[in-house]
Amino acid sequence: MDHLAEPAPRLCAACHRTVHPTTPGGLCDRCYSSTATHLAKLPGLYAALGGVLAPGRGAALVGTRHSGSGGRAPLRLHAIDLQTEAHAVLTSWAREWVESGYATAPDWPASAEGQVAEACRVLRWNWGRASRQHPAVAEFVDEIAQWHRRIQAAVTGDPGERRIGVVCACGTVLRVTVSTGRASCGGCGTEYPRVDLLGLPLASRSATANAA
After folding, report:
1. CA–CA gap between residue 54 and residue 41 (Å, rounded)
2. Helix H or strand E encompassing 183
3. Is the separation of the CB atoms in 11 and 19 below 8 Å?
4. Are the C-beta atoms of residues 202 and 167 closer than 8 Å to each other?
5. Alpha carbons 166 and 172: distance in angstroms, whole number
6. Residue 100 carries which DSSP code?
7. Given phi > 0 = left and psi -120 to 50 = alpha, else beta, which region is 13?
8. 15-63 tens-digit pLDDT
9. What whole-number distance in Å separates Cα of residue 118 and Cα of residue 98?
């Protein structure tokens, strides 16, 4: 009797780990949950950037060479840039979800801080549906993780885990951290446990930046 071939395992659209057969959508449980957590924390972290900007405050300013006269500290200017860019990215995603039918248009507050909080609320409340249907879900997961990491680093001074690129035997670049437990290659489907991931050759910076 002929045996039907087993279907290929589904891979998470964001991290390329194997997705459990009972998990709906294209994300693994870890990417789904971590994104929801990041969306919940981002409003508070964004608000805390105000403390970094306040004169004489902010852990990120410790160790700067600027004092007294002579201009504003570079890291304080960096926090201003983070505020501007994060506001643009988060509100842009929320507006795109509204235009695409994944969310209902909110009443936007007047302040930038309030708009970021409202954007994260819209994104978090509609994350379940968007995670299953949105065509750019992998890009969204990656951007939200990056902004959570960047703002948290500016507020606390702790950069957190850095993603590195490693190269599969087929040439595909996998983005991982030192605590990644397991990952599957999106190119050939090879599944790597942590010990094998750590043994893969490192990718160049440009290849890592361009990796999904």
Report:
1. 21
2. strand 182-184
3. yes
4. yes
5. 8
6. T
7. alpha
8. 777 887 777 778 888 889 999 999 999 999 999 987 776 554 444 333 3
9. 13
Please give the Cα distance from 129 to 93 (Å, whole number). 14
Name residues whose C-beta falls within 8 Å of residue 108's C-beta, 6 or more positions apart in sequence: 91, 114, 115, 118
Residue tagged 């988060």 (tokens): 90
Tell me phi and psi for residue 103, to 5 degrees: -150, 160
Q: What is residue 29's DSSP assignment?
A: H
pLDDT digits (tens, 9 = 90+) for 149-194: 889 988 887 666 677 889 998 988 888 876 676 788 888 888 887 7
End-to-end Cα separation, the chain, in angstroms:
41
At residue 124 the predicted structure's pLDDT band, cuts being 50, 70 and 90, is very high
pTM exceeding the 0.85 threshold for the entire prediction: no
For helices 29-53 and 74-99, the axis angle rounded to 10 degrees is: 140
**Computed from CA positions of residues 172, 173, 176, 178, in that sequence, does the dihedral angle turn out positive or negative?**
positive
Give residue 62's pLDDT.
Answer: 32
